[in-house]
Amino acid sequence: MHKVILDSDPGVDDALALYYLVRHPRIDLLGVTTVFGNAPVAITTRNARFLLKAWGCDTPVRPGASGPLTPDMPPEDYPVHIHGKNGLGDYPVSDAEADEPDNAAQFLIDQIRANPGQVRVLAVGRLTNLARAVRLAPDIASLVNDVVIMGGAFRVPGNVTPAAEANIWGDPLAADVVFGAPWRVTAVPLDLTTRTFMTRQMLSRLASEGGPAMQLISDLSQDYVGFYARSGYDGMLIHDCTAAVYLTDPDLFDLTQGEVRVLSQGIGMGLTLMNPVSRHGPLAAWEGRPRQFAALDGQPHAILSRIARTCTGQ
Ligand code: BDR
Ligand code: CA
Fold first, then answer.
1. 132 and 65 in contact (C-beta within 8 Å)?
2. Is the Cα torsion angle 125, 130, 131, 133 positive or negative in sign?
3. pTM of the entire predicted model
4. Among 139, 230, 239, 241, which is most exposed with the fewest C-beta within 10 angstroms?
5. pLDDT for residue 75
6. At what angle are helices 41-54 and 211-230 packed, to 10 degrees?
7. How far apart (Å, rounded) are the C-alpha atoms in residues 3 and 31?
8. How far apart are CA 191 and CA 159, in angstroms?
9. Which of 38, 122, 223, 224 to mutate to test the pocket of ligand 1 (most atoms within 8 A of CB)?
10. Could you list the active site residues?
11. What digits encode the pLDDT tens for the residues 38-83?
12. What percent of the chain has pLDDT over 70?
């Protein structure tokens, strides 16, 4: 069993990732921490609770950061054209927004310390909560099993700017802290997630075979599929669920290793730069950083099949 904490900003593709974790027989979901990103944190927290309640789960949800660590960021421009005004494709959710103190970083610290060597953190939003946790409690870097993130664009253009992928762009300093801490980070970036898309046909097959829970995912994903169709994709990009599959099926991912830096200002803000292990010589900006991993390639069809099997229980 993998003990997992999901750090997330639901978010349409976050919803599918959450359902994958809830359904997978080898995942023990310890909790969900939330962050601003696809919507303000009061809404992403409300959404995580709404989804878990709809699926009959009592997994704890802890609200996290409402803004970035990075100084002088432009005001947040929530992606309502992708995830809707309510973060869930404008699927009707009447539950009240969460209005609670931010305690996600402390929850991460407590869970990692209580389960030494076991916790796997899957972070599929801005990395603000994780960066704050490791700054507050540097000991967690050696106590966590590993950190898997959906984020970055290493050899392909970003999806917010030509340089930057959304989760990194939204808090580049936090991403630089996370890649620089002495724990194992595996990034599942746009290089792979832009090749992993679920067609409308597959989504409706999963909805009919997967019961009301998958029907809910399908209903809230309709505008999101439309956005990706208008962007030229034959289906919806399932960024966050692709990263979730790495937890259970790492054999489907091809990893490249190197030290990673993230640009936190200028027109390249949010760019993820990996120094490949084959490059030798003095490189001050990367010097002393841990070698991390990025899934620049993998098997999209097999990843989709694992998602289908898990989410329909077949
Ligand atoms: C990432 O940004 C968010 O909009 C998605 O939920 C995903 O985590 C893709 O760049
Ligand atoms: Ca997300």
1. yes
2. positive
3. 0.98
4. 230
5. 87
6. 140
7. 9
8. 11
9. 38
10. 9, 239
11. 999 999 999 999 999 999 999 999 999 999 999 999 888 999 999 9
12. 100
Q: Where are the domains of the chain?
A: 2-312
Spell out the SS3 assignment of 247-272: HHCHHHEEEEEEEEEECCCCCCCCCE
Task: Indicate the pLDDT class of residue 278, thresholds 50, 70 and 90.
Answer: confident
**Protein residues with CB under 6 Å of any ligand 1 atom:** 11, 13-14, 38, 79, 124-125, 150, 159, 165-167, 239-240
What atom of ligand 1 comes closest to residue 79's alpha carbon? 4
- The CATH superfamily label for domain 2-312 reads Ribonucleoside hydrolase-like (3.90.245.10)
Query: What pLDDT digit, counting tens, does each position of 101-129 carry?
Result: 999 999 999 999 999 999 999 999 999 99
Residue among 32, 150, 165 to mutate when testing ligand 1 (max atoms within 8 A of CB): 150
Helices (H), strands (E): how many in the chain? Answer: 13, 11
